[in-house]
Design brief:
Chain lengths: 274, 494
Amino acid sequence: MSRRMSRRTVVLAAVVVLLGIVGAAAGVVVNRVRGPEWSAETGVMIRLASPDIVLLTGLTPTVELEDLIDAAAVAKSQVVLARAATKLGSWWTGADLTEQITVEPVGSSHIIKVTAKTPDRDLSIRTADAVAAAYVEVTQEQLRATTDALQTVPRPPDPGRQGGSDVTADVRSRAVILGQDVAMAEIIHTDEPAQTSPSITTPVALGIVGVAAGVLGAVVVTLLRPAAGSRRRRAAADGNGYGGTPQADALQHANGHTNGAARRTDDATDPVST
Amino acid sequence: VTAPAEARPEPTATEPAVETAGPRWAVPAVAAIGLTAVAVGTAAAAALPGAPAGLVVAAALGLPLVLVVGLLLHRHQWLVPWGAILIFSTSAELRLRVSPEVGVLKDLYLYLLVVVVGLPALRSGLLRARLRPIAAPMAAVGILAALYVLDPAGAHGTSWLFGTRLLFSVFALFLIGLVCVRPEQVSAHLVRATAAVLAFEAVFSWAQQFAGEDALVYGWGYQYGAQVRGTSGGGLRTSGTFEDPFQLAALAVLGVALGLFVARRWQMRAVLIVSGIAVLGATSVRTAWLQVAVLLVFLALRRGWWRQALTLGAVGAVAGVYLLATTTTSDRPGAPEVPLLFGLNGRSTAWAQAVQGPLSFVAGNGVGALGIGSTRQSAGVSAPPAYDPNSAPTALYAGNSAFLDSTYAQVQSDVGIVGSLALVAGLAGLVAVLVRRCRRDPGNGAAWAALAVLAVAIVDWVGRSSLASYTTGFLTMYVLGVLVAASLARERPL
């Protein structure tokens, strides 16, 4: 019996190890298929998120997480990617960069992170830099277009007669300041690119998954086998009228075949607290 | 189902006794350490006049208090459910009214329980004895836990720590419930504690309803979108002392389950069920009503009304599908209205985020990359609930990476398909064990209650990431552990 059990254990262990090896091998294959990949990150600090509020009220709102999410969406837009593509070379298009670029806010900061993944180390740096620079240019141009338009807003004929101050004068003066002196965003740094493929991570991850799948299979096998055994026991027990586990049958024999006796015996085995 | 009188009880293996009295020197040692701590704290206060008074008091009284509470919990384990229900139910309100630091209390209580309940059970062999009948499902859950620790697709950063800590906390609470000494006594006190808290929550949540949302936000200091929410029909959802109405509704469902299956006296049963229904009325959580319907199906099954239960289940399913198909809703403010059946209020979009490619399907995206753990990356999440007149709460909606809104999707995203299969296998195994126990001994109310609580949790996890969550996951898994332990002891309904 124990020999059979040990053989079964050995077989299950072998399957687990085999699945782990298969998983790791699959990871190596994934690395080969994917080819080399480098990842470079450029950080962009968002200095001003809501120029319209500054223009209308003169107050400078703080940059919130929602502003960073909006900024990330703009940085991933085709307007920005198309401009970044022209910086990289004439053979690039914005659509080419869509798959290579991810932009996301960085935790509790005022920074968005532009990540470029390309097959070449230098190209990943240049791509991340180009997208970051394009984002800064586009947002600055949008600000300048707005402020230029506001500077030409005509002065009201006689603000004093209308019972108020010259609001447009305030807006124009803010527009001049914003258009000339304020930077919407600023590139702060580009990290050294990291090689993401081929790397040891994928084979290790898939190896772990393989081992886990093997262990889960072993658990399921051991879960199902006692069920088959209990069916056999139940079928055998139908002949003597007890139909329980061997322990139940033994207990019922020992207690006069009554349920109440069996119940008292079980209760007596319950954990005891003092 | 055979009648209770004809039940054939399944014997359990002899369980080792846990020495809850402790060694003789325990009380003198606690007294000596406590007095020393008070003396040192007083001396520190005298020697350091500039030291913050609160810190000195905490240092002087905190250690003795922890020691005394630990000793009490070890000796009288029926106190454990009182502490658990009270702390888990009130911590959000206390964070708002007293101090944000109160949030640490739940973690301290958990660690204390691990030391005074878990470790003695491990040493005495009680843990092994209680785990033996559910060894296979627990092994599957163990694989899931191992995958979370190894985190094959991700890094071991803040998100991993947060996601893993929550999951291990609920697993630890399940085990603490499972290894309690005298589970029948503990489950009786669990019923009483739940009844007391639920009755209070019913009164408090309806007082909030009568106060109205303006008073709750501007006067009571609650946050709109958190403790105070609106229904799609314009109604008000209140949350009692919890952080949101869904957590309160989860407690109500647990209370109804205990009332239907475990409570022995009709007064207790009435308090639990009436309070539970009152709370569900104040919270207006649709899934909770669905869970109550599941409980009623199990009640019918227990009574032997198989046909009625099947009919009720079928009618409920058809009515649910009809309701989903004919109700339209927006996934987010301003979005076009779509049938609820296809979008599930944006959940289908949220669930789709869990799988982001073949490798993501196999190994996951990494623990905490999406969903619960990822919220730790954003600012303000760890702040206490409070009314801030200058900012509205950030809306979580389908498409937001912090919003997977399903336990199964969460596990799939965290550790991949093997983790998902391990979770499903563990649940299926536990259901099989409990069903077998219910069939053998239909009078085993704790087994029926455990099965019903597990079933409503399985339903809840479809549409919410509530397994590894505070407070729903904490409460559910602790209650489930106690009920499984009580069902193993095969006590009659209390």
